[in-house]
Amino acid sequence: MSPLYLAAPAVVAAAAAGIAVYGAGYPRSQIFGPTICRTNSPRKLAITFDDGPNPAITPKLLDLLDRYNAKATFFLIGRFVRECPELVKETVARGHTVGNHTETHPNLFWLNPTQVRVELRLCHKAIHNAVGTPPKWFRPPFGMRNPWVIPAAHELGCQSVMWTLIPGDWLEKPAEWLIPRMQPIATHAQKTAKSNSPAPGGTGDILCLHDGSHRDLNADRTRTLAALEHWLPRWRDLGLEFVTIDQAVGTPAP
Ligand SMILES: [Zn+2]
Known about the structure:
It contains ten helices and eight strands.
């Protein structure tokens, strides 16, 4: 038997594993089902926040967003929603959109279909109870999917939302580190402004930030606030509009 022949199964297995890892974690992979990865216009920036609600940060963030007339999307953890339903209500009352980020923030890749369903359903219910309407959007924790995740979201009437940029604001780094990591949004907007031809649809950015931590309530996310204080006026001056995911994909009114 040739050594090449012997090696073939190993190569195939490695390739299959590679595809599975790509499908599970790569933000724009569609292997395990369709996801939204961009807004429908290069002028529209969808700022999204995961792992809240967070009583220590979210209220300050809402005030900051108001100053720039910015609307955003918050992917919430169900067990935190139950602890601060009023904050979730206020987030929606101030024009933002809330979405499902599971009940306890597990890595869904390792869960079986029933476990995935339970994680999504509990959070779905918590949000529905808090704001009176069910969420329409879902984001998998860590961006990780398996073949059951997107269908489970669909069963609840939710579309899955990923991102174009995730600058890593959960890391213990100063705002001076975080701010340049958010530069690609401005660079993209500058490029679009320079090209006179209207850019094709579906090219705007979705930014993934964090107003909470999946480990505990009241996590310190002041660096995320500081980075946004830096960027919001600059992005505004570049002509960007800060929209919710509803506005970013142009979902018609029901
Ligand atoms: Zn998360």
